[in-house]
Amino acid sequence: MRWIVDGMNVIGTRPDGWWKDRRGAMVGLVERLERWASTGGHRVTVVFEGPTTPPVESSVVEVAHAPRATANSADDEIVRLVRDDPRPDEITVVTSDSGLAGRIRDAGALVQPSAGFRRVIDRF
Fold first, then answer.
1. What is the pTM of this model?
2. Is the pLDDT of residue 47 over 90?
């Protein structure tokens, strides 16, 4: 199973002040995903709107960005990743964005809500 995570959607499930340090929140999410992926052997891609300076990097999970940081650009990138995959039925996309969820299901992948997923990875 491959997991594609709508990064800012998962971060936004907790009103913990993440907007004061957006990059820090992104790094924290990637670190939790690394621990979860390592423990369970999961293939994970997290998608953000646009790159940060300095970049958020990982040797465990793939950190992807939309080509340009515009409205819904991460959603479009997630849909592209699903459509470009030869086995979309083996992908679960983590998002609570209903519009994106519909597009993902239409492309043949599964959807898991962000808040429940966040509770799972916060244990790691």
1. 0.95
2. yes
Sign of CA dihedral 78, 2, 83, 110: negative
- DSSP reduced 3-state for 68: coil
- When pLDDT is cut at 50, 70 and 90, the band that residue 68 belongs to is confident
Output the pLDDT for position 53.
87
Q: What pLDDT is stored for residue 108 in this prediction?
A: 98
- In angstroms, the Cα distances linking 63 to 16, 74, 108 are 22, 12, 22
Identify the CA nearest to 12 among candidates 25, 23, 24, 3: 25
Out of 3.40.50, 3.30.479, 3.40.210, 1.10.10, the CATH code matching 2-121 is 3.40.50
Structure tokens belonging to residue 20: 């004061």
Q: For residue 50, what pLDDT is reported?
A: 84
- Closest to 5 measured CA to CA, from 55, 70, 58: 58
- The closest alpha carbon to 111, from 88, 80, 77, 87, belongs to 88
**Would you call the peptide bond into 54 cis, given omega within 30 degrees of 0 as the criterion?**
yes
